Amino acid sequence: MQIRILGSAAGGGFPQWNCNCANCDGFRKGTLNASARTQSSIAISEDGEHWILCNASPDIRAQLASFDAMQPARALRDTGINAVLLIDSQVDHTTGLLMLREGLPLDVWCTAQVHEDLSGGFPLFRMLEHWNGGPRWQEVPCTDQQSFTIPCAPSLRLTAIPLLSNAPPYSPRRNNPHPGDNIGLFIEDTRSGETVMYAPGLGQPDEQILQWMRKADTLLVDGTVWHDDEMLRCEVGTRTGQEMGHLAAQHF
Q1: Residue 73 in contact with residue 48, Cβ under 8 Å?
Q2: Which of 45, 66, 145, 237 has the most CB atoms around its CB within 10 Å?
Q3: Which helix (DSSP H) or strand (DSSP E) does residue 113 occupy?
Q4: Are 213 and 236 in contact (CB under 8 A)?
Q5: Contact call for residues 7 and 49 (beta carbons, < 8 A)
Q6: Handedness of CA 19, 24, 25, 30 (dihedral sign)
Q7: How far apart are CA 50 and CA 107, in angstroms?
Q8: Share of the chain above pLDDT 90, in %
Q9: d(Cα 221, Cα 214) in Å, to the nearest integer?
Q10: pLDDT at 79 (0 to 100)
Q11: What angle do CA 201, 202, 208 make, to 5 degrees?
């Protein structure tokens, strides 16, 4: 199994375009030892040639340009992306689909709840139908009792772990989340036995989620805030991490 971290920042990236907090301002002035980061996305592959894009962030164009495997140049028009898997329906994880419109149709895997949000409140699926029919929706089973595979990587067994987190503002389930609004992804290479847990939108880890995390060789989890009241402390927001659906990293 091969994994490429394309982006590891929260919504807005780092530095955020309209933010002058100590970190963003310090980065721009060169007084902070840090690296610029794009919004959360990874790519996974079993062979290094055929890739599953996990989340399509607004920074997708720069992310693809930074990773040579995403443009194998085997034909006049080409891409290393064979499928897209969406963890949730948040703007930060889905807007990049608009940048991929020239490559449609493309299989997009997500839960029924995410598909509903992206067909209604934030209708990306319907908008993109104007480009070669748009994305081909493939339903992700929202239960940790049923694994699935994606054809371009049959040796990677995937399990969607329902997460306790919030739905986006345009979802009818905002502040009343249901299983399927947000998932973590448990990835197992059936050849090597290697495992990874990817959960960029982790709100409240219950015992069931913790059991899956303990099974993983590698954890890639939500790091939006270090402290739950961080936005308030820094005077850049009015909500806590929990209210936004993000677990404070101090709990790990």
Answers
A1: no
A2: 45
A3: helix 112-117
A4: no
A5: no
A6: negative
A7: 13
A8: 73
A9: 13
A10: 95
A11: 135
Parts of the chain with a pLDDT under 70 = 223, 225-226, 228, 241-252
Cα–Cα distance measured from residue 15 to residue 96, given in angstroms and rounded to the nearest whole number:
19
Q: Cα 22 vs. chain centroid, distance in angstroms? A: 26
Q: Under a CB-based contact definition with an 8 Å cutoff, are residues 142 and 112 in contact?
A: yes
Structure-block tokens of residue 59:
């920074």
Distance CA 124, CA 94 (A): 8
Q: How far apart are CA 91 and CA 108, in angstroms?
A: 16
| Contact call for residues 104 and 84 (beta carbons, < 8 A) | no
Distance CA(130)–CA(39), nearest Å, equals 27
Instruction: Supply 236's token pair.
Output: 């850049």
Q: List CB contacts of 59: < 8 A, sequence separation 6 or more.
A: 7, 13, 38, 39, 41, 96
